[in-house]
Amino acid sequence: MAFTDSIGAATIDGLAYVGGLARLTGGAAKAVFISPFQGKRFHMSRAIHQAMAVGVEALPITSLISFFIGAILAVNAAYELRKFGALHLVASAVAVSMTRELGPLMTAVVVIGRSGSSFAAEIGTMKVNEEIDAMETMALEPISFLVAPKFLAMILMVPCLTAWADFMGVLGGGAFGLAAASFTWGSYIQATLEALIAHDILTGLLKAMFFGLVITAVGCQEGFSTGLGSEQVGRSTTSAVVKSIFAVVMVDLVSTTIFYLTAPR
Amino acid sequence: MSPLPPKKDYIGAMTPMPVKASCAISVRNLRVKYGEREILHGVNFDVPAGETMVILGGSGSGKSTLLRTLVGLERPSSGEIYIMGKEFANISEDERDELRKGIGMSFQSGALFGSMTVGENVALPLQEHTDLDPSTIEIMVRLKLDQVGLSGFENYMPAQLSGGMKKRAAIARALSMDPQVLFFDEPSAGLDPIIAAGIDELILKLKRAFKMSIVVVTHELASAFLIADRMIVLDKGVIVADATTDEMKNSTQPRVRQFLDRVPEPEVTGEIDYLQMLTGDIPPIRQ
Lengths: 265, 287
Fold this sequence. Notes:
The structure holds 2 protein chains of 2 kinds.
Chain A: H1 2-33, H2 44-54, H3 59-81, H4 90-128, H5 131-137, H6 142-180, H7 185-195, H8 198-224, H9 231-262
Helix pairs in contact in A: 1-6, 1-8, 2-6, 3-4, 3-6, 4-6, 4-7, 4-8, 4-9, 6-7, 6-8, 8-9
Chain B: E1 23-34, E2 37-48, E3 52-57, H1 63-70, E4 78-83, E5 86-87, H2 93-100, E6 103-106, H3 118-129, H4 134-147, H5 163-175, E7 181-185, H6 193-210, E8 213-217, H7 221-227, E9 230-235, E10 238-244, H8 245-249, H9 254-260, H10 271-279
Parallel strand pairs in B: 3-8, 3-9, 6-7, 7-8
Antiparallel strand pairs in B: 1-2, 1-4, 4-5, 9-10
Helix pairs in contact in B: 3-4, 3-5, 4-5
């Protein structure tokens, strides 16, 4: 009985959490896409500030990681492909893996580490310092003031970062191809373009947009649910990172399955 | 001093009072629950327009919950709150936000937005709720900071201010929309006596200059008696006294006397004392 009770309680908690994420996402989407047409103000300057922090400032680390991931992919692909004398397929293996999966996923991990955790810490600190309460007493809606700019910045910038990460990954694979697989830059790029189809790139970017949405929702939700005391901010931040990674993997699984089922054959 | 009525007369559930049009705030039969636990047990009181009401009470008495409910941060489980004659407790979020533009709140910690300068903090409500142009907002920010004695601090970050200055800046932000009702949560808590006296002076100045109705939650007795026109004392979620400052000084109500005379709670030594503490009955004051 206790076991079934605990399963029931965990299920209810899980559903309540997902409900909270949906409420937050719905509120932010309304503030971005609907409220400006109802005469309410959208904080575009805050969204631009967030976009710079989420996207532009993440470029160096995303570039570096993606370049190395591309190179690692190429090495691993070459390890198997050379057994079959098919080293020329390294370029297509890297291109498809980066655009469909590793580009969006590694970008999401970088964004979780940089931005998801920072959202939770920022909102959590504001909660502890009564700033969220102050906002409400001033008739400012925390979701439209705090979450909506982050939401817009993330759904725009995570796909942009992902596209850049795809490019850097291909570049990393190309570096290996040039050094160890008899490619030239021209032949490597040619092989990459032949391997890629628009569906691969677009599904990767669409996934990235969903990742951005989920990371924002989890980071902000953890911030808003911060308890009393500064140590709770640390817990919220850790929790935001762990839950965001889990949520991104879940979204990845579902979206990849849907894309597989709807892919052109 | 008019004798305080028996305890049951303070429990609004038994004797709800009619709402007076001349009051800035009227609270009727207010009950607030956290989960299954009721914190406020049917509270009734009025704050006449232009007066300062101080809410006194020990830790856990429910005074912070009462203040949070008055400014709309907690939803009551039942009862009514009227602010400037308009129902505030049982309305939609949009209606509540509209009414909130007419009230100001100064938090215990100041609650200034740490990522904004002092000037930006004060300007925020004006930017969000008015169509004033930036130069007019700039002038109004200077005016508000001048009113609280912080001229020239527009470009400081909250982290660069002392505790007293933070409270003043928070008051300037609370004043930015020219509210008719101002709420303070522990305005002098954590400040040295000189700075605390300065905050008290500022509250008195605001009341005199702008005829504001002010509600202050505090347990600083010296400050309370200086700034209050009326006081209520909360104990275990019930108002045990509602009187003018002079009446309060002379109150014979045991719990009020215990609070004002700074008499510690009796030690729980026996089973009956323990049950009294659990059930909320007023324990005898240690002589």
